[in-house]
Amino acid sequence: MSTHDLYALPAEMTVWEIPAAGAARFNWEYDEGRERLLALYAKGKDKQWDAAKRIDWSLPVDPMKPLGLPEETHSLYGTPSWNRMSQKERDELGRHSIAWQFSQFLHGEQGALVCSARIAESVPDLDSKFYAATQVMDEARHAETYARFLKEKVGLYYPINPQLKELLDDTLSDSRWDMPYLGMQVLIEGLALAAFGMLRDITPVELPKQILAYVMQDEARHVAFGRLALRDYYRELSDAELAEREEFVVHGCYLMRNRLRGEEVWENFEIDKAEATEATANSEYLADFRKLLFSRIAPTIKDIGLWGPKVRAAFEDMGVLDLAGTDVEVLMRSDEDTAEELDRKRRFAAEEKARAAEIDAMVELGAGD
């Protein structure tokens, strides 16, 4: 069966082509590099993992409630459209909503794969090339993981969201080597990290919890990579060059915020757009979600030096200006600790299961005598 047979809506194209822009850069200095970037490169090599082995794909998932979340968390809960639906229709709407969200995760990971390959090609310094090479493998693994989850556990995909597609187009069509960093490492990855983290912490379903925790362990390094590389470079830019990048940040942040509504799902279920727009604007759950999404982006934007009046005004308009004081280092350490703790618990549980099986076998053997 082709993936296209599982799309809830027709994908506009089989292959999306963006004309390549910019130069491939070689660097013949092999002995010098920034210590922290080389440390990230070493960690990137050390932390590689196999999605087929590290994740327990035998764990059950209810395709109607893949994350096991209560109905109250759905943005349309309590609306006239919701109240007219049967329970079966509500369950199907919930399935489509999760399929839409995880499909955007999947498409974003493929975008990150292409962007990190572009970074390895175009960034001028070798330490960044080394690290970007490890990220290419990370992003391939993440895309593999989300694609498998959607195919085997949910049985449904959605095409790429127009806002995400526009930001990827803007990011990859720009000839300046730093733009894949800014668009992907800071904006798309930063927002994805926050979304992954919220879902990781609230889902009671073990399989998606594993997937999100292990992907986040990698993504924390990717955002750190973007921060380190861009902070150094942006110190050298003129005010006019910084202003251009700040304009890109503002546009990208509004695109990312607006794409959270899931309009493609509304259209698929023929839900009144005005009603759904009002419901998502007033949803307490989505309001908290939107704000949390910028907990990784706002402090990173400030840290790399893109903190002019236009950026601050946009973040104030979105209600996330206060998040600029968030300690991203603490969040990233927590992401790594969560994944490692999950590994420890799973190993302990496996050992306990093996011991229990051994005891049962001995009891059965004794009973046979």
Short characterization:
By secondary structure, the chain is mostly helical.
Shape: globular
Helix percentage: 55-70%
Task: Give the biggest beta sheet.
Answer: none
Number of helical elements: 15
Radius of gyration: 22 Å
Structural overview:
The chain is built from 15 helices and no strands. The mean pLDDT is 88. By secondary structure, the chain is mainly alpha-helical. It has helices at 35-46, 51-54, 80-84, 87-122, 126-154, 162-173, 179-202, 206-234, 239-258, 263-268, 273-282, 284-293, 297-304, 309-317, 328-368. The N and C termini lie far apart (52 Å). Helix 7 (179-202) runs antiparallel to helix 8.
Comma- or semicolon-separated keywords:
mainly alpha, 369 residues, globular, single chain
SSE layout and pairing:
Blueprint: H1 35-46, H2 51-54, H3 80-84, H4 87-122, H5 126-154, H6 162-173, H7 179-202, H8 206-234, H9 239-258, H10 263-268, H11 273-282, H12 284-293, H13 297-304, H14 309-317, H15 328-368
Helix pairs in contact: 1-5, 1-8, 4-5, 4-6, 4-7, 5-8, 6-7, 6-9, 7-8, 7-9, 8-13, 8-15, 9-14
